[in-house]
Amino acid sequence: MRIGRFAFDSIAAGRYASLAARGLLGVALVLASVLACGQQATIVLDGNSNGRIFDGLGAASAGASSRLLIDYPEPQRSEILDYLFKPGYGAALQRLKVEIGADVNSTDGSEPSHMRNPADRDATRGYEWWLMEQAHKRNPHIILEILPWGAPSWVGTDSLYTPKMAEYVAEFIKMAKSAHGLQIAYAGAWNEKVFDTAYIEELHRRFKADGIATRIVCCDEYPGEGAGQWAIAGEILKDPELASAIDAIGVHYPKINGKITTTGAARKTGKPLWSSEDQPNGGGGPFVTRQWAVGGRILAHLYNQNYLEGSLTATEIWSPVTSYYDNLAAPNSGLMYANTPWSGNYEVQGTIWATAHTTQFAQPGWQYLDTSSGYLPEKGSYVALRSLDKKNWSVVLETIDSTHPQSVSFHLTGGLATSTIHIWETNDSRTFEHVADVTPNDSAFQYTFDPNSLYSLTTTTGQSKGTAQPDPAAPFPFPYADNFEHTALGRAPRYLADQDGAFEVHPCDGRSGKCLEQVIVSKPIPWGPLPDPFTLAGDDKRADYTIAVDVHFIAAAPATVMGRIDSADVFRDGNARWPSGYVLRLKPDGGWELLCTQFKKPVVTLASGTANLDPKKWHRLALRFKGNLIVAMLDAAPLTSVEDATHTHGMFALGSEWDHIQFDDLSVTP
Question: The CATH number of the domain where 32 resides is what?
């Protein structure tokens, strides 16, 4: 995941020349005849046409983007999962990529590691295992992928390209199979980092030695990285050993300045070419998945364009669901929106139905028909696909930028089925509706397409539009309290979203019961910024409240309580140790400080001092906000009272440094 840099542009001109240059002469000739006929277009659907194999549409659950989904109550949680993964219901995702967690921030938080040291093995931490199981339960044919963003420090110094990292990845795959019955189809090297051919070959050797059938996709690079995101293709053409190690080439956000960037070298490799991370914004902010009028329309363009212009046979959207707080990086990235588990509310967005127009009508393994795919005369595009036995076929056609209806004549040849054709439509007034059935006459039929619409034409059946409805939205519960007694040991409490490190429930030290403990003692190898560990929750609009928590020092690390956090997007300031808000830190020796933090601005110390405390005992630390008044308290006695107007509202958090510390009896009250 990368924030910003390349903005979404309209479809580039010169399509005829582009198609002819790519060798798709049949498409170019069809386009030429269409342009000569005004608004009357003729499309020949030829079952004998050559084309690449369709590898499916999917999404990447990474960067803690799915964190809050597991906290949803039933039945809403299952409803969300159905809209994402259930065939013939919603997006019907055909691929799911997940992050191999490493207890380090990778966009919207840190995901737990399965192997925190060489002897550690835990296939139950976090929620990606669960998400893969739920996706596989709904679609046993779903293609599962994995990709690391960071890694524990034991795999290397500052790089993931080590033999120990190959072991780390291999163990994840073996644990997926042994503990969860999941087959990981593909694994990547390192998210958006310049590739290392020696490591790719090492990873391939490790898989072979361990009897792992997982294939390697390389190299998930962002535009502008190293020699360019397609540079691996040139290396593949020069190095037979590397070519045998890599099964697919994946790049992130391949659309730059309105054009797909696939190179001739990439096509020459013969490897499947994928957009292994993409978005309706084309790689630049803001994220726009929440509205059909924006996100859905752009995605309808994107899915077709990725193949027509880029020969890309798979597209994976970051992310499947916005299940992270709005004041984190890249808000609104998901195909769905579900980040208030306490309310049960969620949004089925236009991007769900833009995706369904492909996934409910064509399956991985189908073949694109190149001479039957192209562009309409009055703006718009279409791709045709068929099952390998030619018994079924589908056309996905969009008229997003057109302003007039377009009448198209279709002629079926090459053994394609001539049975009834079912037509589905989405636009501003219709959402994934079955609008017509057409019976071909002498292997031909005609249909008039509305402007600003997305269509699927198909001989298949079984499509449907999900009907589940969410509960109304509601703000974060207030007052709020958690004594952690109802959370399983080794797990994260509901609603708390770790932003670095790992905050898990463990037996209390120095008192009975369960407590929240930060357990990561060595800084992991990061992908991006590396703030001090903290875990976040709350209402970003709440102004006046008191956050209080019991703290217990296990090591030399301080206890940190934070409030009025108006932004936790640490990517806005890669050097920030804390989010943007007020930070109260208490050390075991009694030293304390109250800080005001803002991204890209110096940290301001509002007050500091030394308290008389016994570091072996539990203590209650609190921050109180009312208007511009901020009061810091220790064991119910004020440490300081100051006035500051920098932050007027925001969420709360608990934190520390990279060492053990425990918290208990968290409360947020008026």
Answer: 2.60.40.1180
